[in-house]
Amino acid sequence: DTEVTQTPKHLVMGMTNKKSLKCEQHMGHRAMYWYKQKAKKPPELMFVYSYEKLSINESVPSRFSPECPNSSLLNLHLHALQPEDSALYLCASSSKTEGTQYFGPGTRLTVL
Amino acid sequence: QQQVKQSPQSLIVQKGGIPIINCAYENTAFDYFPWYQQFPGKGPALLIAIRPDVSEKKEGRFTISFNKSAKQFSLHIMDSQPGDSATYFCAARSPDSNYQLIWGAGTKLIIKP
Q1: Do A100 and B49 touch (CB under 8 A)?
Q2: Which of 42-101 (B) contact A at CB < 8 A?
């Protein structure tokens, strides 16, 4: 089973809202990733967690705040987003940072 | 050096034809080359992957050809079907950069019935 689940599927939020995106995997993977994907573009890496520790932060604005409560869960907390943050947010996991990455279905975020 | 160049940007092929998507790279340290298939509104799904010590890998109707000396690799889809219509991304894994994936720009493939 190579399933990564993400909730919600769609999210519409105003610029003053606080919301969270959730990601879960039960493959025993120890690396988890957040990507942002704009239309007709490849995914852009935002954060990498390895063994529940943040290992890569690709200079993402502080209005995005990742959290890894345990080895199966990954959250992305959103606050004071801008309309240009509207995108498909993808979670991925791999057995380790050098392993094959498996992606979830994504959360389509719209910021009004 | 950390780029992967993918072509063409879009491709239309008749059903049963063999679409070919090409990727080129510069960094010889890249050690793993996956292809992902993405349908609209979905996450990328791993299709097939190859390591640089192998020249060809086949899985079902999908084949990767790898030319290490030319630093190029390509995806061939045999007996293409309308259900193969999707965006395809090549990628390369970079040990120099904490094993991050370096992505090609993507190819939008349409298979006409």
Answers
A1: yes
A2: 42-46, 49, 87, 89, 91, 93, 95, 98-101
Q: What is the pLDDT of residues B15-32, one digit of tens each?
A: 999 999 999 999 999 999
Q: What averages of pLDDT result for each successive group of 10 residues across chain A (112 residues)?
A: 89 93 95 96 95 88 95 96 96 91 96 94
Cα–Cα distance for residue pair B13/A104, rounded to 1 Å: 29
Please, what are the averages of pLDDT over each run of 10 residues along chain B (113 residues)?
A: 92 98 96 96 95 95 96 97 98 89 97 96
| Dihedrals phi, psi of B105, to nearest 5 degrees | -75, -15
Contact flag A42-B106 (C-beta cutoff 8 Å): yes
For A94-98, the CB contacts below 8 A with 24+ separation are A94/A29, A94/A31, A94/A33, A95/A27, A95/A28, A95/A29, A95/A30, A95/A31, A96/A29, A96/A30, A96/A31, A96/A50, A97/A31, A97/A48, A97/A50, A97/A55, A97/B98, A97/B99, A98/B93, A98/B95, A98/B99
CB of B41 less than 8 A from some CB of A: yes
